[in-house]
Design goal:
254 residues; alpha/beta; binds magnesium ion
């Protein structure tokens, strides 16, 4: 089993380091969950039955997140859309406050969604070690940022934390019309740098996107596994790290 700080390759063979954004550099999940609380409390004042679903953070993780996934899947599982978040709020009302008239239910759900759209972005924070890791890696390697998501959200996140200056190339899936794990978006990310695929390592938190895609593209991969998750399927990374800063030892930077 790969373990933290046990490189499965010689760091001297690495020429470029690639980072995923959400869940890797940026603690988006906390922003989504914490931002959910106030709109959910507001919606519960309209539909008291929603309170029976449980504590807001739990409702976000267990119920709302599932509705987002279902909406995404129903749409074919392609590029992320803000519509899935709107649908998630509508599903909360439609499925758990069934006595609500559909029109009013959707109007109130949409109002909660609008509040949510305002509440989660200001809560976005980089992981505590992200700046230190970016500085240390940047001192030695050219870096690329390779993120799945819609342009408006991803560019907002990048701008908010002034991330672009660190990277030789920033690649947002919607902008290029390709998504991880498609190896074509990995190839696109390093095209301007003229390096061999095997000399690139991609660091990400989602094995099915980050590890599988990197492997299909002929890159190395490091899986950031902060929660001690069990590896999904056959997406085995070259190295597993428990925190982002684990990559520094992998790359021989400390
Ligand atoms: Mg991610």
């Amino acid at each position: 089993m790969p373990t933290e700080a046990t490189p499965q390759f010689d760091p001297e063979t690495i020429a470029v380091v690639s980072f995923d954004l959400d869940g890797t550099l940026l603690d988006s999940r906390t922003a989504w969950r914490e931002g959910f609380r106030a709109p959910f409390a507001w919606l519960t004042t309209r539909y008291p039955a929603l309170a029976g679903l449980g504590e807001a953070g739990e409702v976000h993780d267990r119920v709302y997140q599932r509705y987002l996934d279902e909406a995404h899947l129903a749409a074919g599982g392609g590029e992320w859309s803000v519509d899935y978040m709107r649908q998630g709020w509508r599903d909360l009302v439609a499925r758990h406050a069934p006595s609500a008239a559909t029109t009013d239910g959707n109007a109130n759900a949409d109002a909660a969604f609008a509040r949510y759209e305002a509440s989660w972005p200001p809560l976005l924070r980089l992981f505590e070690d992200a700046t230190r890791v970016l500085d240390a890696v940047h001192a030695r390697y050219p870096m690329v940022l390779l993120t799945n998501g819609n342009t408006a959200y991803q560019r907002m996140k990048i701008e908010m934390h002034d991330l672009a200056p660190w990277f030789a190339h920033v690649v947002v899936s919607e902008e290029v019309g390709l998504m991880k794990p498609d190896p074509a978006i990995f190839a696109h990310a390093i095209a301007p740098l003229g390096v061999a695929p095997a000399s690139v390592i991609h660091i990400g938190d989602t094995p099915a996107h980050d590890v599988a895609g990197a492997r299909a593209a002929g890159w190395r991969s490091a899986w950031v596994n902060r929660d001690g998750r069990v590896l999904e399927g056959a997406h085995v990374p070259d190295v597993e790290i428990a925190t982002l800063s684990g990559i520094l030892e992998v790359l021989g930077l400390r």
